[in-house]
Specification:
Residues 3-118 form the Response regulatory domain. Pfam families: AAA_lid_14, HTH_8, Response_reg, Sigma54_activat. The protein is α/β, with parallel strands linked by helices and 475 residues long. The protein has three domains: 3-121, Rossmann fold (3-Layer(aba) Sandwich); 133-307, Rossmann fold (3-Layer(aba) Sandwich); 315-470, Orthogonal Bundle (Helicase, Ruva Protein, domain 3), CATH 1.10.8. Helices cover 50% and strands 14% of the residues. The strands form six sheets. The protein has a five-stranded parallel β-sheet with strand order 2-1-3-6-7, sandwiched between helices. Strands 9-12-15-8-16 form a five-stranded parallel β-sheet. Helix 4 (86-94) links the parallel strand 6 (76-81) and strand 7 (99-102). 32% of the residues are buried.
Length: 475
């Protein structure tokens, strides 16, 4: 039998929810305090869904959430919260909650649907669904922990009618993430419209957002709807929101507070149901301190805050990103292991956008008869390649010293033992030693030649094929 745990200090709410779900044939347990929660024997009672009120007189709902997830990690958790604590509810989602709902419960049908959705979901199917939407949105999640946590949080808040602020450096993919949020929401069949607030003058941006009446200003030769009107049931993405003028910020604040606006030159009030997602590459908190951005608008936009990590903090995702970008160009080319290593050593100040342009350029400049792009063929400028090679060489020299000490200790230990020795394994370790030493000499020579492989091979008196072989590259 499905079992539901309800934690709420309001006895009436506990009684109401208990009756509601018992009528569906579920077993329901209600506790009214943190103390009662601590008295539950979780070894005897297994819960499928828990509904936890964030504010209890003797406990913090977030603490109870963490405690519950430790003893019953498969239990789905729904946080119950007032509007003023929605930001805390989002924090709860980051800690493992599956959903949240605002109190008081104005829509009982919605509450029932949310619980039924939690009961019907599984970790596998949910993850599969998220990955499918990500692919359709052009979002490559990768393997980095930070990016996966971000997408899990984004997927959980996507269906909520709350404003979202996305922060991230230029080129990290803020618009792609906003499209993912739209596709993962109930509005996915409605319009998604984006506008760059920094690309338009104040007057043009005002007209673009709110529309205008014919003759309202010079050049207004006809009536025009604004984006808040066109995307009324969909999603409006405001990129570079920090670039919006103070006057535009005031008007945006009014729309967010009242859901009402007027076209330029009109006195008629229009209403909108647009879901707003804003993005910036600036620190809006700092902009508020410097009086460059309205504090009240910041808090209205920042109901849910998502920050995209820069590419230099998720370098483990570069191989997958490169593979995706190569597929997008329609080429059969691939990058060698050393080429990927070189890309992972670069800091990518322009993030994914820079990487995308780089891969496109590398494909265009590649030998028409080649199937693999080698590290020395990458279109990286001389200074950058030298810095990367120097960084790799320093690491290689440090690793060699450590490797030699470990190898010598293990070999002498094997030599001194009187039991049977597998000589083949010892000789294999000698070959590995040869490989490591060879690679270290090559890396140091590459540092001296500023990454010039032909010159390095000449100095080492080996062929380019031998150099690539010792670097474990395909030939």
């Amino acid at each position: 039998m499905i079992s539901i745990l309800i934690i709420d200090d309001e006895v009436e709410i506990g009684y109401f929810l208990s009756r509601l779900f018992q009528s569906k044939g579920y077993h329901v347990k209600v506790v009214n305090s943190g103390k009662e929660f601590s008295e539950i024997d979780f070894s005897l009672e297994q819960f499928h869904v828990a509904m936890i009120d964030l504010k209890l007189p003797d406990a913090n709902g977030l603490t109870l959430l963490q405690n519950l997830k430790q003893v019953q990690p498969t239990c789905k958790v729904m946080i119950m919260t007032g509007y003023s604590t929605i930001k805390t509810a989002v924090d709860a989602i980051k800690l493992g909650a599956s959903d949240y709902i605002e109190k008081p419960f104005d829509d009982i049908d919605l509450l029932e649907k949310q619980v039924e959705k939690l009961l019907g979901s599984t970790c596998f199917s949910n993850q599969h669904h998220i990955e499918k939407i990500a692919r359709e949105s052009g979002l490559i999640v990768g393997n980095s922990r930070a990016m996966n946590q971000l997408i899990q949080t984004a997927a959980k808040v996507a269906g909520k009618p709350v404003n979202i602020l996305i922060e991230g450096e230029t080129g990290t993919g803020k618009e792609v993430l906003s499209r993912f949020l739209h596709q993962a929401s109930d509005r996915h069949q409605e319009s998604f419209i984006g506008v760059n607030c920094g690309a338009l003058s104040e007057n043009l941006l005002e007209s673009e957002l709110f529309g205008h009446e014919k003759g309202s200003f010079t050049g207004a030769t006809q009536h025009r709807k604004g984006l808040f009107e066109i995307a009324s049931n969909g999603t409006l993405f405001l990129d570079e929101i920090a670039e919006a003028s103070y006057a535009i910020q005031v008007k945006l604040l009014r729309v967010l507070e009242t859901r009402e606006f007027m076209r330029v030159g009109s006195e008629s009030i229009l209403r909108t149901k647009t879901r707003l997602i804003a993005a910036t590459n600036e620190d809006l908190k700092e902009a508020v301190k410097q009086k460059k951005f309205r504090e009240d608008l910041f808090y209205r936009l920042n109901v849910v805050h998502l920050k995209i990590p820069p590419l230099r903090e998720r370098k483990e995702d570069i191989p997958l990103l490169v593979q995706h970008l190569l597929q997008r160009t329609g080429t059969a080319l691939s990058f060698s292991n050393s080429a990927i290593d070189l890309l992972q050593s670069y800091e990518w100040p322009g993030n994914i956008r820079e990487l995308s342009n780089f891969v496109t350029r590398a494909v265009m400049l590649a030998d028409p008869n080649a199937t693999i792009i080698q590290a020395d063929e990458l279109p990286i400028n001389h200074q950058t390649k030298s810095q990367v090679v120097a960084s790799n060489t320093d690491k290689q020299e440090s690793n060699l010293e450590s490797y030699l000490k470990t190898w010598l200790t293990e070999t002498l230990t094997t030599f001194e033992q009187k039991d049977e020795v597998k000589l083949d394994e010892v000789l294999a370790q000698v070959k590995e030693l040869e490989s490591q030493v060879g690679k270290s000499f090559i890396m140091r020579t590459l540092k001296d030649t500023h990454g010039n492989r032909k010159e390095a091979a000449k100095r080492l008196q080996i062929t380019m094929r031998k150099l690539r072989y010792l670097l474990n590259e395909k030939t």
